[in-house]
Amino acid sequence: MPLANNKGFDNANPGILTPSSAILPNTPAKPILFKRCYSSARLMVMRGPSISEAARRLLKGKDCSIEVPFNYYSSAMDIALLINEELPQMLNEPEIKHSPVENLIRIFSKEELIVYFGNVEPDISVCWIPIIEDDFEIAWDDFRQVINDLLIAGYPGCVDCAGPAATEPWDELLHRSNF
User: Fold this and answer.
1) Packed helices 136-153 and 73-86: angle between N→C axes, nearest 10 degrees
2) At residue 162, what are phi and psi to the nearest 5 degrees?
């Protein structure tokens, strides 16, 4: 939801306080970046369904690969091994690749992008996990936990074990409108 511009918030760049909003004298002329904790917490709640959809897409996908930053490679390998152990019917666990970009994770199925963790909105056919400020690790940990929970419940071979959202068609446009 855009913030009102009458208090110096820039709707195009909601994390920037503009000089026109200066209440105190001698305010710098350049925009000041500030941390909006309430937005980060709200985003974490709002992206929960997207993280669940991303996990389901990975577990149902064929010939998947996960492209992760170097420092997430080990935990991504753990996910691949867990999938291999829990889903022996899957002929190949996801291939793990290094991402050339920090704070960006991409998941492909048959070389088609199906999940994107990052701060740039991808095509509407891609399940987007938006990242702001320093919450990349939180989003990754949430994703790993959802994968673990789904596998323990028996997904994707179970009936209704992933909750009602798993049986309904995913509406990416609707979920993006919540961000």
Assistant:
1) 10
2) -100, 15
Task: Examine residue 156 and say whether the peptide bond preceding it is cis (omega within 30 degrees of 0).
Answer: yes
Cβ neighbour number for residue 84 with a 10 Å cutoff: 14
Reported confidence tier of residue 44, pLDDT bands at 50, 70, 90: low
- Spatial CA neighbour of 17 closest among 25, 6, 8, 26: 8
Count Cβ neighbours within 10 Å for each residue of 12-48 and write b for 16 or more, e otherwise: eeeeebbeeeeeeeeeeeeeeeeeeeebeeebeeebe
Distance CA 151, CA 42 (A): 27
Q: Which residues have CB under 8 Å from 50's CB, separation 6+?
A: 127, 128, 129, 175
Residue type, 179: F
Instruction: Find tokens 């992206």 and name the residue.
Output: 47
Q: Residue 155: its pLDDT value, please?
A: 80
Chain centre to alpha carbon of residue 55:
10
Summarize pLDDT for 122-178 with one digit per residue, the tens.
999 999 998 877 788 989 999 999 999 988 888 876 766 656 666 677 888 887 787
pTM for the model: 0.71
